[in-house]
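Bench notes, afternoon.
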Amino acid sequence: MSRFDVSKLLTSIAQRGTPALVGVGALVGGGYMVQNAIYSVEAGQVAIKYNRLSGLGSSTYREGVHVLMPWVERAIRFDVKARPHTISSLTGSRDLQMVNISLRALCRPDPFKLPEIYRSLGPDYDEKVLPSIVNEVLKSVVAQYNASQLVVQRELVSRMIRQRLVQRANDFNILLDDVAITHLSFSPEYEKAVESKQVAAQQAERARYMVTKAQEEKKRTIIHAEGEKQSAAMIGQAIKSNPGFIELRRIQVAKDISQLLAKSNNRMVLSSESLLLSLVQGGTTLASEEAPTKKK
């Protein structure tokens, strides 16, 4: 038989009478009171109390251990940490283009307005309020800009959405720590039109570049022709005024040919005619060539 026999214990209590029953009842009741009279609030939470007699209290309780009256009072805990919410909305721009925009907001309840939030909205306040006010603000702000402005001035649009959304959330005692546009897209027709416009702009820019290039080539050709003309005129004038100029040019050409052949791996012997050295000054050359003919 077990050391602690329940039947014997009950028999002993019955023999002792009412005082023992009262003691056991007081012990059980005291344990229940102690267990239900103490509650704890975790970090990042704030609690309020609901009293069955007086209703919702106005005091808030931070993290830690607190005391309440069992059965009469009940603790209601709120998570006051910032929580992310992503909401998408399909709206129209000022130029009647459909815009699909997604917004991410970090929200939390006002810790000093928790009784009002619970009384008017309940614990799921964010699910009741945020979708409606976000759609309202997005539609009112996006309608003020064209589709191209939404892309170019995205930072300005995001700032305006944040300002208006913070004001609307304050009406419901909700605090917004951050608001940002996470996605922005347009209809497939509009995106195709924008792509076609970009391609046309690139082609026009390329055509403009080709025209400019042709004009520069024309100018370069004209300048080169004028330079050749002036060079020919100067050379002709130099030959006319000094016949020795052409002989000097011939010597320079022969020097260039000899230097080029000297760098070659193949060795060869060239006559003076190949190096243009046989072309000496007119009087000397002709005299040497005509002398034998006169003797004959």
